[in-house]
Amino acid sequence: MIGQVLKRWRKNFVFQHIFFWLISIVLFTVVLFYTRGDFSIQDIDLRTAISILVTIAFLAVSVYINFLFLIPVFFNKRRFLLFTLLEAGNILLFIFLNYFVSTLFEGGGHPNFMSEFVAEFILVLIFLIVSTLLKFMRDSITLQDVELRMKEVERQKIEAELRALKAQVNPHFFFNTLNSLYSLSLDKSDKAPELILKLSELMRYVIYETKVDTVSIEKQLEFINSYVYLERIRTGEGLQIEMEIKGDHIENKVAPLIFIAFIENAFKHGSKSGSTRPYIKIFFNLESENQILFSIENSKEPVIHSIKGGGIGLANVKQRLELLYPAKYTLNITDSDTRYRVELTLVVK
User: Fold this and answer.
1) Does domain 158-347 have CATH number 3.30.565.10?
2) Please, are residues 280 and 242 in contact by the beta-carbon 8 Å criterion?
3) How do residues 224-247 score in pLDDT, each as one tens digit?
4) This model's pTM is above 0.85
5) What number is the average pLDDT over the span 173-180?
6) Can you state the percent helix, strand and coil of the chain, rounding each to 5?
7) The predicted structure's pLDDT at residue 223
8) Alpha-carbon distance 334 to 311, whole Å?
9) Domain ranges of the chain
10) d(CA 98, CA 117)
């Protein structure tokens, strides 16, 4: 509601200035009435009214010289000494022009030039200060509105990118799992029915739980346990799998499927390791209320090329981390000839 009012107010730029000067005329007249004991409302004749309007016109000249020239050219560029000198010249210009015109209307000079000089100096100074403050306030509101618009555009852009990334995660995960299922079906393995059943549980999680922005770490762990169980069925006893959870802050929430790409990658390469004891070690530290520490390590063959770049899954999760946890995560990847290790720390509160 306030934003719409401000938007309409900015559109009526001319109206704002007309309104300001109408208020100025009224206030100027009221001040004149109360500060001069010998002045009454009946004394306002055509000549006096013209004199007031001329004074306001000269004030407008000083104000717009300040608005359109002195502030943008000198003040905004931090040329403060020149700004001060030229502003003083602007004030003197008003005083002498207004005094000169006043003498023409009154048929002679003011009996006390110094008091008139001080009064007009205070008058123009008040107008310049008030109008400058109003300009700065208006510019500040405009700047805030621009910043809000930019933030809204950025937010929409991030949401669109996240939706696109999330749309990639689900097919990628199912593609990898269905490949495993296909391999078992070719071998006519007795493990295939159990694998299909476990896959259905994982599909239920991916379809329903990942629609929200964040999921509790408890549900994430249930999903990961099911995935690890599925991989145990697929890989058999040849692969040593360890999973350790330290701490009990399972209520913390994180983005869904944020860990699974690293776990998928570990099973993809760890299960193919040619070492005598291929292994995968998964670790979660949930002791802190404010952060989650996750690490995963797998064995790998020396001949396998570096996988730091990863495929769709790893590239996807890195992009999501940048968008969801800017300056709130650390990701360290160690890739040697015989092991691949990922350490991820997330600040969740």
Assistant:
1) yes
2) yes
3) 988 888 788 777 777 889 999 999
4) no
5) 67
6) 65, 10, 20
7) 87
8) 17
9) 2-150, 158-347
10) 10
